[in-house]
Amino acid sequence: MENLVREKRMALGMTQDELSAKLDVSRQTISSLEKGRYNPSITLAFKLSKLFQCTIEEIFIYEEE
User: Fold this and answer.
1) SS3 letters across 2-55
2) By residue range, what is the domain housing residue 42?
3) What whole-number distance in Å separates Cα of residue 37 and Cα of residue 11?
4) Which residue in 1, 3, 30, 45 has the fewest CB atoms around it within 10 Å?
């Protein structure tokens, strides 16, 4: 699933380490998420939307297969 995690993180001036600490996940999780190799749990998606102050749909681009 494509996403805008990297763009939103950078807009806030955060590093992957800083974002991972705020979300209580590993930096590797953030890296994999940004590269589209990992789809987050619904809990992590909600945490991201709250942190970025936007909807989940504004972060994750769902494309039907």
Assistant:
1) EECHHHHHHHCCCCHHHHHHHHCCCHHHHHHHHCCCCCCCHHHHHHHHHHHCCC
2) 2-61
3) 22
4) 1
Pairing of strands 2-3, 60-61: antiparallel
pTM, two decimal places? 0.91
Count the neighbouring beta carbons within 10 Å of the beta carbon of residue 54: 13
Nearest-angstrom CA–CA distance, 14 and 43: 21
Q: State which amino acid sits at residue 9.
A: R
**pLDDT by residue, tens only, the chain of 65 residues:** 899 999 999 999 999 999 999 999 999 999 999 999 999 999 999 999 999 999 999 999 988 77
Question: How many residues are recorded in the chain?
Answer: 65
- Residues forming beta bridges with residue 45, ordered by sequence position: none
